[in-house]
Known about the structure:
The structure is a single chain. The chain has one domain: Spore Coat Polysaccharide Biosynthesis Protein SpsA, Chain A. The protein contains six helices and eleven strands. The protein has helices spanning 2-31, 36-43, 69-76, 124-129, 150-160, 195-200; strands spanning 54-58, 84-90, 92-93, 96-97, 109-113, 136-140, 144-145, 164-168, 177-180, 205-209, 215-216. The longest helix is centred in the N-terminal third of the chain and has 30 residues, at 2-31. The chain starts with a helix and ends with a strand.
Amino acid sequence: xxxxxxxxxxxxxxxxxxxxxxxxxxxxxxxxxxxxxxxxxxxxxxxxxxxxxxxxxxxxxxxxxxxxxxxxxxxxxxxxxxxxxxxxxxxxxxxxxxxxxxxxxxxxxxxxxxxxxxxxxxxxxxxxxxxxxxxxxxxxxxxxxxxxxxxxxxxxxxxxxxxxxxxxxxxxxxxxxxxxxxxxxxxxxxxxxxxxxxxxxxxxxxxxxxxxxxxxxx
Length: 218
């Protein structure tokens, strides 16, 4: 009898695992071909679950900007809403100008910054704009589809460890997302910088969030 219950339990867990994977894979596929306006309209009904200000911050390049729609839609298709989705782009990158799709303006605040900070463009301009202690700034990549409950999970981890930088493992460099606060940075660099610069200028300890539902698509 115990053996039968054990086998039944294993079968149920396996079925749940398979269904969960199928659901996630369907979401990833849908985000790559979904009508954008539907997600824009639904986002207003998503609950804001954090009392602190939460900003999503990222950058992209002229040759990639037209391909980042799935990433943007994955930020709308979440279990928790944020206060702002910020796209920081220089006027030119590698001597090329940006052609920003019109609908992107309905999803995020697009900040054209006067200087190209390299990889640091995803966070330097945001840190220069946002200096209120406690603001959660989540640094993102433009080549990921983010899991449906990702924002809620990383914010919860930050609430749990308010004095820590949260990064999505296994390593800080190259992580799919990093949550920082303005007070965690020693100084803001005004030249080109990357994750190594950020790592070397953090005043807070780091903690890894083990989250595996963020997927590469570019």
